[in-house]
Write a structure and sequence with these properties.
With 161 residues, the chain is an alpha/beta fold. It has one domain: Rossmann fold. Helices cover 36% and strands 17% of the residues. The protein is built from five helices and seven strands, in the order βαβαβαβαβαββ. Strand 6 and strand 7 form a beta hairpin. Helix 1 crosses helix 5 and helix 2 packs parallel to helix 3. The two termini are 22 Å apart.
């Protein structure tokens, strides 16, 4: 698969933070690759190709940028589902959150995050952080091959395809 065409899934409920992240990714030519969803359930719908995402093209995202504090299903719940899934567990997940609470950091790593970034409050620092995220996770990191076709399975969030 052409790594330059793979999607980056941005899971962020705050529209301002989502726009800021998209702007930062645009600085690295990645804005056209970003798919944004605003809560944890939409993230799982996207990943498992359910509801409005049933016909989405392509394979798994090359990267998930995941906020922690969201409605319906928080980032920890999404992270646990991704890392517990045979079809999704190899997707790199970077927690991108405003929380610097040690308990959030510990819970995220316990759930299997690949990296945890506390969003800098200064725009220039945020741009610099996103530069490093892009450089490593998009340009340097080698992702595992995707598992062939996913079957339906039941989870605490319902049947997943």
């Amino acid at each position: 698969m052409n790594k330059n065409a793979e999607t980056i899934l941005l899971v962020e409920d705050n529209p301002d933070d989502a726009e800021l992240t998209r702007l930062a990714l645009a600085r690295h030519g990645l804005d056209s690759r970003v798919t944004h969803v605003s809560d944890g359930m939409q993230a799982l719908d996207y990943l498992y190709r359910r509801d409005g995402y049933a016909d989405r093209p392509g394979g798994n995202p090359v990267l998930v940028l995941l906020d922690l504090k969201m409605p319906l299903l928080d980032g920890i719940g999404v992270l646990k589902e991704i890392k517990g899934s045979d079809q999704l567990h190899n997707i790199p997940v970077v927690v991108l959150t405003s929380s610097t609470e040690p308990s959030d950091l510990q819970r995220a790593y316990d759930a299997g995050t690949n990296a945890y970034i506390a969003k800098p409050t200064e725009f220039s620092q945020f741009l610099n952080a996103m530069k490093h995220v892009c450089e490593f996770w998009i340009n340097i990191n080698q992702t595992a091959p995707q598992s062939p076709g996913a079957g339906v399975r039941s989870t605490q969030f319902g049947e997943l395809i």
